[in-house]
Specification:
With about 130 residues, the protein is of the alpha+beta class. It is built from four helices and six strands; from the N terminus they run H-H-E-E-H-E-E-E-E-H. A six-stranded mixed sheet has the order 2-1-6-5-4-3. The protein is globular. The protein starts with 8 loop residues before the first helix and ends with a helix.
Length: about 130
């Protein structure tokens, strides 16, 4: 028996938009509140991270590396429990270097939370300008 609560397309889109908006505020509790405890985060060029503790750690480390982070939504479409978000992620390091990274994110939702978050982007376009290795 499937006990997953279905979110409407509009509620699904709002959850993801709120999650993406929390990045500019550097709001780790707000970011993490969007995730299911058994969530998976996958920057598709690298290995997935499973579980809330690992996801929190990578996001904390990521925000610590940047003076500024803004995940700009270009297009977002949703159906119940599934959201696709085309974005440009704007990052500025503490030394002033910056990168504008085109990204496509896929969000699978379960019981009102992000259960699986997969980001698709060109790894060299991130690592080259930032000097960071994922």
């Amino acid at each position: 028996m499937n006990t997953t609560t279905m979110m409407t397309a509009e509620a699904s889109k709002k959850l993801v938009a709120d999650f993406l908006g929390a990045w500019q505020k550097r709001d780790i509790p707000g970011i993490m509140d969007c995730f299911a405890p058994d969530a998976v985060y996958h920057n598709v060029p690298v290995a997935p991270i499973k579980g809330i503790a690992g996801i929190r750690k990578i996001f904390e480390d990521f925000l610590a590396a940047f003076a500024y982070a803004d995940l700009e939504i270009i297009r977002i479409c949703a159906e119940p429990n599934l959201v696709f978000a085309e974005r440009v992620d704007h990052f500025r390091l503490h030394d002033g270097r910056s990168v504008d990274l085109p990204v496509n994110g896929v969000f699978e939702l379960r019981d009102g939370k992000i259960w699986r978050f997969s980001d698709y982007f060109d790894l060299a376009s991130f690592e080259g300008p930032t000097g960071l290795k994922l």
